[in-house]
Each structure stands twice: as structure tokens, then as C-alpha cells.
Design brief:
The protein is mainly α. The strands form 2 sheets. A two-stranded antiparallel sheet has the order 1-2. A hairpin with a 2-residue loop joins strand 3 and strand 4. Helix 3 packs antiparallel against helix 8. The longest helix is centred in the C-terminal third of the chain and has 15 residues.
Length: 127
């Protein structure tokens, strides 16, 4: 995947405090900007099996983690959505994760299987 900071000299992303920082001034974590790490993470949320893993580790019950998921809603804005490889499933998962009921139900293998099937079907578009 192309580095958004390389193709766009300044990629602004809101911080956890709500302020916007420029990637030119941003710290790097293991060689990656915070935006790049958040992009990678939010895209992983499109995987129902990963969501099940997060739930099984009780992360989806952690109020700090839930607040982080809310913070990641900035990816629903067009200027950030354009960086998502699979915006449909990624944004749907992000939307569902805002609901406490879903965060509990994703522990169910039946729910995981249904979501995986829906994700697969949505990726196969017959034209």
C-alpha cells in the first residue's frame, strides 16, 4: 500500500484529544506515523474473526478501548475514507462497534460466520 504521507505532503488526522496534527511534525512509532497505524488497525476491524478475538480478550468491554473506537469514527469522513482499501466492510464494522449489543454479540460464532459471509458476498460484485 502506498504511504499516504508520501503521496500527500500533509496528512492531518485528529488526535485522541481532538486536535489535528500534521504528519510532518508527528512522531513515528516503529517507523510509522500514528495515522498509518490507525489506518491499519481500522482496516483490520473489517475482519469478523478479528472482532471476535477482540471480544474474547474482553477489549470490547473496556471503556477506554470503546472510546478509541469512537475516536476512529474520523475515518467516516471522505478525506480519510479515501485511504481505506475496503471502505464498505471497514466502515460497517466501525459503525457496528459503536453499539454495545453488537460488542457483546460478536462473541457468537454464528454472528461471526454471518458477518464473514456478508463481507465475502459484498466483495464479489457481479456486473
Amino acid at each position: 500500500m502506498a504511504d499516504p504521507a508520501a503521496t500527500h505532503p500533509v496528512v492531518d488526522a485528529p488526535s485522541a484529544t481532538g486536535t489535528v496534527s500534521s504528519s510532518q511534525d508527528e512522531q513515528h512509532y516503529g517507523g510509522f506515523t500514528r495515522f498509518e497505524l490507525e489506518l491499519e488497525f481500522v482496516q483490520a476491524l473489517a475482519n469478523p474473526y478479528y472482532l471476535n478475538h477482540l471480544a474474547s480478550q474482553k477489549l470490547l468491554q473496556d471503556s477506554t478501548f470503546v472510546a478509541y473506537l469512537k475516536y476512529l469514527q474520523y475515518f467516516t469522513q471522505p478525506e480519510y475514507t479515501k485511504y481505506l482499501s475496503y471502505p464498505g466492510p471497514t466502515l460497517k464494522a466501525l459503525e457496528l462497534l459503536q453499539q454495545e449489543r453488537f460488542r457483546q454479540e460478536i462473541l457468537s460464532p454464528d454472528i461471526v460466520a454471518h458477518l464473514a459471509e456478508q463481507t465475502l458476498l459484498s466483495s464479489i460484485k457481479v456486473k
